[in-house]
C-alpha cells in the first residue's frame, strides 16, 4: 500500500497533523496501535483531569464549546473530545494497527504492520512521549517483598495493599497520587527531587491564563538558551480540580504526608534519601516568586488592573530542619513503592539511525535528521506549549508546511 505520508499515532498530535495535511491535500494515513486517544483510555488513573483549563482545549479547526470553559476535563470527557475531533476532520484512521518496524531506502519509508506494509515519502512520528514509565535503575535494589507500581498501572487506591506507600517523584503526577492515596487511609511518604512549584490561580486568573498572556507558552525552542535542559524540566505541580485548588508540598504536609529528599538507593531494607530536600524546595520557591514578580510587572506595564485581585505571595515550602536520610521500610510498614518518576517514549520499532544515546529522536524543532521524517507531541518541540493539547496546532501547521515543501522540492533536513 502506498501513500505520501504515514502518521504514527492517533492522539491529539497525530490528529492535529492529519487535519493540517488534509488542508494541504496531502494524501496520508494515520496508524494507531489501539483506539483514538488510546493512552488516555487505558494507561491513566481514574481520577485524572487535565492540568490545563478547558478553554485551552483546541486543535486545528476545533475547540472546546462546553459550558465549563474554566474547568478541567476528566478522562472520559477528553476521550470524547478527541474521538469527536477525529470524526469531524474525517481522519483516515487505521485503528488496532500496530507498527512493527519502520525502515528506509534512498527515497521512501517502509512501515510494517500485521495488517500489511505501507510505503511513503514522508513520515510523522506522533506516537506519544509517555509510552512507558521511566523507572530508575535503583529500583532493582528494592526489597522483593514490596510491591512496585507505576502511574501507567495505577488506577485507584483500592488496588494497593493496606499499609504505607512510598511515592517517588514530586511533579504533577507524584503530588496528585500522594494526596489521593493518603486520603484512602494509607500513610504516604513522598521522595522529592527537582520540581516546579506553581499556584493554580493567581490574582483571580488561572496560572495558564497568565502563562498565555505573557507569551511564555509561545517561546520558541530556538530562543531557549539550554534546550536540552528545557526539554527535561519536570512538569509543574498543578492539579485540575472542580475547586481550582492549589496542590503543593505544604498542602501535603498539612494532610500528614511525610516529605523526604530525592530517593538515592536501597541498602539492607532501608531507603536512602539525598540531603538536598531543603535546597530543592528553596529553589522551587524562588523560581515561583520570580514568575509572580514577572506577572506583577506585566500588569503594571500594560495597565491591566481591571477585575484582578491584589498581588499574592505564598509561604515558603515547610521542610523540617534535618530531614531523615534513611527509612527502614519494614518498620515503617511500607508495602508499596509508586514510581512517579516520569515517562519515556518507545521507539523500539524505529529501525532508522535517528536516536541519540538516550533513545530520543534527534531533531531540530520537529524536523528529524532523516529527510522527510517529522516528530510531534514531545516537550518543547517547537514551543514551550508543545506538550499541551493546544500546543499541537501551531506545531502541526509549521511542520506540515515544511513537509509539503519537502514533498514538492525534496528540501534537505538540517543536521542535528
Short recap of the structure:
With 416 residues, the protein is an alpha/beta fold.
Give structural attributes.
single chain; 416 residues; alpha/beta; FAD/NAD(P)-binding domain; 2 domains; 5-stranded parallel beta sheet; 25% helix; 20% strand; globular
Structure characterization notes:
With 416 residues, the chain is α/β, with parallel strands linked by helices. The protein is globular, with a radius of gyration of 22 Å. It has two domains: 5-131 and 345-409, FAD/NAD(P)-binding domain, CATH 3.50.50; 134-339, FAD/NAD(P)-binding domain, CATH 3.50.50. The chain has a five-stranded parallel beta sheet with strand order 5-2-1-9-26, with helices on one face. A five-stranded parallel beta sheet has the order 11-22-12-13-18, covered by helices on one side. A three-stranded antiparallel beta sheet has the order 6-7-8, with no helix packed on it. The chain is built from nine helices and 26 strands. Helix 1 crosses helix 9.
Provide the spatial order of strands within the biggest beta sheet: 5-2-1-9-26
How many distinct helices? 9
Secondary structural class: alpha/beta
The main pleated sheet reads as:
5 strands, parallel
Rg for CA atoms: 22 Å
CATH fold-level name of the largest domain: FAD/NAD(P)-binding domain
CATH class of the largest domain reads: Alpha Beta
Q: Mind telling me the CATH superfamily name of the largest domain?
A: FAD/NAD(P)-binding domain
Question: What's the helical proportion of residues?
Answer: 25-40%
CATH architecture descriptor of the largest domain: 3-Layer(bba) Sandwich
Mean pLDDT: 96
Query: Could you give the count of β-strands?
Result: 26
* Backbone shape: globular
| C-alpha end-to-end distance | 31 Å
Low-confidence blocks of residues: none
The percent range for strand residues is 15-25%
Query: What number of domains?
Result: 2
